[in-house]
Amino acid sequence: MDEYFTLKVFRGSPGNQYFEEFYLKLYPFTNVISYLMDIRKDPINSKGERVEPIAFETGCLEEVCGSCSMLINGRPRQACTALVDKILEETKSKTITVAPFTKFPLVRDLIVDRTKMFENLKKIHGWIEVDGAFDKGPGPRISPEKQDVMYNLSTCMTCGCCVEACPQSGDQSKFLGPQIFSQVRYFNSNPTGAYQKAERLHVVMGEGGISDCGNAQNCVKVCPKNLPLTESIAAIGRDVTVQAIKDLFSLTDR
Amino acid sequence: MKQEDKSVIVVGGGLAGLSAAMKLAESGCFVKLISVTKVKRSHSVCAQGGINAAINAKGEDDHPYIHAYDTIKGGDFLADQPPILEMCLAAPKIIEMMDRFGCPFNRTMEGTLDFRRFGGTLYNRTAFCGASTGQQLLYALDEQVRRYEALGMIKKYENHEFMRLILDDEGITRGAIIMDLFNLRLDAMKADAVVIATGGLGLIFKKSTNSTFCTGAANGRLYRQGMHYANGEFIQIHPTSIPGRDKMRLMSESARGEGGRIWVYGDSTKTISNPKGEKVPCGKTGEPWYFLEELYPAFGNLVPRDIAAREILKVCESGLGIDGKMQVYLDVTHLSSEKLHKIESILEMYQKFTGEDPRKVPMRIFPGVHYSMGGAFVDWPAADDPDRWERFRQMTNLKGCFNVGESDFQYHGANRLGANSLLSCIFGGLVVGKEVPRYLESLKKKNSQIDQSIFEREKNIEEAFKKDLLSRNGNENVYQLHDELAEILVLNATVKRNNKDLQKTLIKLKEIRERYKNINLQDTSSFANQTYIFANQFQAMLDIAFVIVKGALLRNESRGAHFKEDYPERDDKNFLKTTIATYKEDEPEISYRPVDLRYLKPVLRDYSVAKKVKPHLENLPETIGSPF
């Protein structure tokens, strides 16, 4: 016999958000996005009213692009890997709630504007300062062990789950976000990138930087890519201390 | 030149678009980078396995010429050879450049780049970052683009979509009509060159390995504006994907590159034809039958994708699919933990979406729509062509409109080899980075001298279409039409084709086109109205569907990804030529042009014997420039 469940969506526009429920047929191993796609095709709510389709972001559907971040039963995550039947089983419920992130400006329904995360990458000098796209031979040698750590740090999708979970982050907060410290660590760990190490550290020593971290450790629990976010915060904390001493005695890094 | 006369619009923020934007900014152009999403989320992130370059890091005597040979043969000789040769020669330097940008490639114990083996070759020439190489390459370019953004050379317009090319009265590109996907406002953006790098078209088939951004709409819109579209019928079906309700999730070729094996339970009472046409038994009853290894002993599980996909389909159709379903096993359970670590990200993905641990039980996979070899027709004057410097590489027949990456038709012929796509995207981007400034220099009349009314006129065309779509009040549902379009295309225009069904498909497409006139959007809001956005894309997607089907119908042979049951052989006499589709209201007009075969004469495309050939390429140019 067919099984059904209720998808409860917190939707609307800025200043006018409300819950709307949809009664949907349950399929095995099917993610939240698939149901939003079903609704889009025939948007009828559980009261039988025809409503506007739900606006949402989606992309790769494989958890590598970071598009479909949302709150699912209150937890920030990617909707593409949120398999509804599994969640219902775990929560022993027939209802699942989805909502847009709250720490970013709302666009419409489940879409928020995460531009500030990308702006923060500019602030920390989030690139390797190369001479250009020229033929200049290979890059620096790196041990396999170090590459393994760098690769992990580099899988950050800028999805915003950690920002959403962090009590220090907010619409008005200046905090650069938990992910930024892993990015500083990533660029600083590259032998060429290390030439701008002090510059990056100075950014996180300033406003909204490392001293704003309240050590709640929520970030690392929600990261879909299992980045060592808190480990990076600790590592950058140490680097910042060393940098402060160097600054005090006006020592350059070289 | 004034700043406004050095403005270039780049549409698309995947590997090709970012590489173009970066190189253009480096060349002193001011780039407006348009993307339907944050560029960091572009579909290039989904590429898993790696990027090819014949660096010869494993003492195998590999060489860019062998890479070129493999690519030409893998593409069943349909690709023009000069761009392939230059791409393969540039490949080692491209890898080194990406390495300098900080892309975290896997390393050997010595600290240098590691390479793995991929399909259609016998050499270890694929550099990789775990099993998310595309993501890492894209991020490295995204970072370089951010650097130019901070310098004011690049301005991003994310959540914006390309709607139309602005052509002046002489047919020269003067900009593009761009739509803001949040407030739906249309804007006439000025530039004397437009680079299209919008990637694939998987969404036409609805379920593919592509991201939801890959509608192919930009190319469809340009095709309607007169752009020639080449080799549209060549759609790559990836042999190994995980079928889902929302998409076909790619299970990388690197799983097989690291030693993964494809099998089903054998049945000795059944037979199958081998590549020589002989009937052989389907393994031993009840025992694992590694059919690719048995049928193609030399390349085994790493035969080119078109061959693997067809064999998997054939095996399933003969009733040997796992549990009688359309699925076969992709088995990595025997691999060492070290090897499994190299493909960990895809194993995790499999586990997340199926609930089964692929380290313990074999994965269940089936072929899925993956890549479009066809795309915009672009020019390529070869290094030693007398008119090399009078023409422009990667430029379409619409003057000043360039096209790169998956959205162009070059480099892959009738079938793309694994790990060549990332290479062709970055290479193509670098090439336009050098060709576009040269084109801008050649222009007699600059953008600042163009009459303002041209921009208004083009914008009004799009305003009118928007108004039309939002006011359509029929009883058709555009998503329903999409389902029907995809269903018939997947059935008749993917792994196997025949003329009777293609003819039927063409009739169905016309029916869908009529019904599209009577759609009702159900959402008339003017803010982030995704149904309207999709309905607008759908017309362009449908146009490209016509190109795919008509091209396939007229090509009476089998070549690479295009396999026709009624014409199972390659026919060089009649069809060793590039298909060119030109927009006509009723059906595309199809014409053909010769393939540039100047280095290598076609040979039989055989993957059943193991032979490392030292290819002899003829007529090589004395000097070849570099895309750097």
Strand content of chain A: 5-15%
Secondary structural class of chain B = alpha+beta
State mean pLDDT of chain B (0 to 100 scale).
Answer: 96
The Rg value of chain A, from CA coordinates, equals: 21 Å
Radius of gyration of chain B (Å)? 24 Å
* Widest beta sheet: strand line-up of chain B: 13-12-19-18-14-17
Q: Would you report the number of β strands of chain B?
A: 23
Share of residues in helices of chain A: 25-40%
How many helix segments of chain A? Answer: 9
Percentage of residues assigned to helices of chain B: 25-40%
From the structure provided, what is the oligomeric state, counting identical versus distinct chains? heterodimer
Global shape of chain A: elongated
**Into which percentage range does the β-strand content of chain B fall?**
15-25%
Q: Short description, anyone?
A:
The complex is a heterodimer of chains A (254) and B (628). Chain A is an alpha+beta fold and 254 residues long. Helix content of chain A is 35%, strand content 15%.
Keywords:
heterodimer, A: 254 residues, two-stranded antiparallel sheet, B: 628 residues, six-stranded antiparallel beta sheet, five-stranded parallel beta sheet, 34% helix
What does this structure look like?
The complex is a heterodimer of chains A (254) and B (628). In chain A, 35% of the residues lie in helices and 15% in strands. Chain A is α+β, with helices and mostly antiparallel strands and 254 residues long. The radius of gyration of chain A is 21 Å and the shape is elongated. Chain B is 34% helix and 18% strand. Chain B contains 16 helices and 23 strands. Classes of the chains: A alpha+beta (254), B alpha+beta (628). At the A-B interface, helix 1, helix 3 and helix 4 of A face helix 1, helix 3, helix 4, helix 10 and helix 13 of B.
